[in-house]
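JOB MANIFEST
job_type = single_chain_structure
chain_count = 1
residues = 334
[input]
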Amino acid sequence: MNASAEPFGVRIRGTGSCVPARVLTNEALSKMVDTSDEWIVQRTGIHERRICDLSTEGTFTMACEALKNALDAAGMQGSDLDLIIVGTVTAEMTCPSVAARVGAALGAVPAAAFDLSAACSGFVYGMNLAQALIRSGQFKTIGVVGSEAMSSIVDYSDRTVSILFGDAAGAAVLSRDPDPRIGCLYSTMGADGRGWESLYIPRHAGDVPEHDRNNPIAMGHLRMNGKEVFRFAVTKFREVIEDAMSKTGLTAESVGQVICHQSNIRIIESAREKLGLPSEKVYINIDRFGNSSAGSVGLCLDQLWRAGKIEKERPFVMVAFGGGLTWASGVWRI
């Protein structure tokens, strides 16, 4: 397709999500690693998380289901898509991409397809990129998915990460709209690779920095310096939300919802309190689903959308941060 000189609006046509049926409670987790329900809840706000049966489900299957649900909500089929973007760090294979397999499964051929690796920021990165491609006229209808089977890369003998992460996928279908006022009003994406060692997944021994060589966690599993990530997140989360709201003139009264990556209840609550946002405008589901990385913002969006809490009168904000270290925001009007 050729780019157009005329700007377009971008409408969210439908949303969808998918979570595994299996629930891993804190009590069950405490039998696998030295922890307790009280310890986990106090530090993270998590009571339980969803975990894939990796023999039959994973990043690909959840991505398919989430996007299919979004297409159904939009009254569309896979063949209506021009492009599929999947945000993930848990793809079953590097090649082919999860997105290409999803396209084949949903009948979206010959739609373009690629995976995007921005860790927990993946879904917001994908939404920002998709809306820009639609506004430019290059694409008409794009499916954006965040899907993570974090259980496939978590070492359940490591208390640092095993208590936090769950599996989930969220999706949205975006399409061109003649009204340029509809869609993303403002977005940011950023990264600071200097902090990569705080949250990483080494595949080979050579990937591991000198100071982490004695870490007992196996290759291919997530390693996290919790204190460093927490320190970065508390500051960056607030900064990114403040920036998004100030650049668009939004206030605690005029914003609809602030959809935060479900990283840690303490991080989210710290940002909410410092920004003066009422609790009903900052959605929380980490207590039931844990941190599902790129799946979390899309899952929250779908749950809010289906509950009728995304209002036409009030723009909403999506914000995330993750490994890389990355961060992103998007302010949307429907």
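[summary]
The chain has ten helices and 13 strands.
The chain has two domains: 9-181, 184-333.
exit_status = 0
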